[in-house]
Design brief:
The complex is a heterodimer of chains A (217) and B (201). Chain A is mainly α and 217 residues long. Chain A contains eight helices and no strands. Helix content of chain A is 87%, strand content 0%. Classes of the chains: A mainly alpha (217), B mainly alpha (201).
């Protein structure tokens, strides 16, 4: 067993000190890496509390509780950034990506350190499946907030919609992973597949936008 | 698995595939129409519904039973209402009086209260109501335009679905899928007005 608060302190303290010496966009990136790790710590505590309170099985807790708490915490951090500092689209996307990265990295440490990180399949599962899934969820949230920000009137409902979509995706991944067998394999491939589709869609969309710019053929 | 459960799963599978296909079709069809945020919200609604169906089906398939608690499927279905509400807010330009909105909202609230009375789960039903009531209000404001009519049919079928069981439930579930296809088709009538609204943003 490891004490996750101690682990958090060891990882977060150097980043926090580094933040004091950073300026501009790199400061935002570093701050949200730290925010992602903090959110992971808080989510783990809240999940454990609700798990004990409801008396659910571990699998049920992973499917019914964890997606809601983890994604709400990520959403709150991004909303805080969005409402207080009104960042531009690029900063918002960078912040969302780094929140996902910080969350995924800290969660991987929590899972891998006690088991000694000797099982290759488990390492791949944590790195390429769960890690990528958290980044996808965070990026989708960032894209969603960036999209609805232009329309203040429906920003709240739009954000709630995006949040629901992300929670459902996260819960589906957890359901597949907890099932074992072929479902687990499909679950492992789901985040990489989704990330590829998302990357291609964004890439194609950006290319089309560039072509529309005046002065380009 | 009983025959009814098999049919229910089959309809859910068809609904999921239809919603996903409709979402992609919307994005493909209207991507060229510049600055139409309602397209994204409507597609988001279909994707949300499809992912909720996927979760529900997978849970049924892997665990042999429907989810016992308020699940991600419920969150996804509720989320599709939020997306639809956002799409309606984007389109704007509602003209009808207050009565259609009041009637639809009253029916929505009444059904959700009735469900709470019949089955308990007051909190869950209130979450559904919180998503459905603003949607019902906005749908009423846009009647009798084709897009709003199709949304009205969808809402009423969904409310009927909540109160039904057995074969009726299966038939209504299939009808909801068909009504969403009409929503997808009727959306074409809102495109010029949407563009006009977004130009003013």
């Amino acid at each position: 067993m490891i004490n996750i608060e101690s682990l958090y302190f060891c990882m977060a303290a150097p980043i926090f000190i580094a933040l004091l010496f950073m300026r501009g966009k790199s400061k935002i990136i570093c701050a949200f890496l730290l925010a992602g790790m903090t959110i992971c710590l808080l989510s783990a505590s809240i999940n454990s509390f609700i798990f004990v309170l409801t008396g659910m099985s571990a699998d049920d807790a992973a499917i019914f509780i964890a997606p809601v708490t983890e994604e709400s915490m990520k959403l709150l951090s991004l909303l805080f950034f969005f409402l207080l500092l009104d960042p531009d689209r690029g900063d918002l996307l960078s912040a969302s990506v780094m929140t996902g990265v910080g969350f995924a990295c800290f969660e991987n440490c929590i899972y891998l350190l006690p088991s000694g990180a000797e099982d290759t399949s488990f390492i791949l599962l944590r790195g390429l499946a769960a890690g990528v899934m958290h980044i996808i969820c965070a990026v989708t949230m960032g894209l969603g907030i960036a999209m609805v920000r232009k329309f203040r009137k429906m920003a709240a409902v739009g954000i709630l919609g995006v949040f629901s979509l992300i929670v459902t995706y996260h819960a589906t991944y957890n359901l597949l992973i907890s099932a074992g067998g072929q479902a687990r394999i499909i679950g492992c491939m789901l985040p990489v597949f989704t990330a590829s589709v998302m990357y291609l869609s964004i890439h194609i969309h950006e290319k089309k936008e560039q072509k529309k710019l005046p002065g380009r053929s | 698995m009983t025959d009814a459960a098999t049919w229910e799963n089959l309809i859910s599978l068809l609904q999921m595939l239809t919603m996903a296909a409709a979402g992609f079709w919307l994005l493909y069809r209207y991507m060229a129409a510049a600055a139409v945020p309602a397209v994204y919200f409507l597609a988001g609604s279909f994707f949300c519904s499809a992912s909720a169906d996927l979760f529900f089906l997978l849970y049924n398939f892997l665990r042999g039973d429907a989810p016992q608690y308020f699940s991600a499927a419920d969150i996804g279905w509720i989320g599709s209402y939020f997306f639809l509400t956002a799409a309606l807010l984007t389109i704007g330009q509602q003209r009808a009086g207050i009565w259609p909105s009041a009637a639809l909202t009253a029916v929505t609230v009444a059904v959700n209260l009735l469900l709470s009375y019949l089955y308990g789960h007051f909190f869950t039903n209130m979450l559904w109501a919180a998503a459905m009531v603003p949607f019902a209000w906005l749908v009423g404001k846009g009647l009798p335009r084709p897009f709003y009519l199709s949304l009205c049919c969808f809402l009423l079928l969904e409310l009927d679905l909540f109160l039904s069981w057995g074969t009726v439930y299966i038939i209504l579930d299939a009808s909801v899928t068909v009504s969403l296809l009409f929503v997808c088709y009727a959306f074409r009538y809102e495109i010029p007005e949407t563009s006009a609204v977004s130009d003013g943003e």
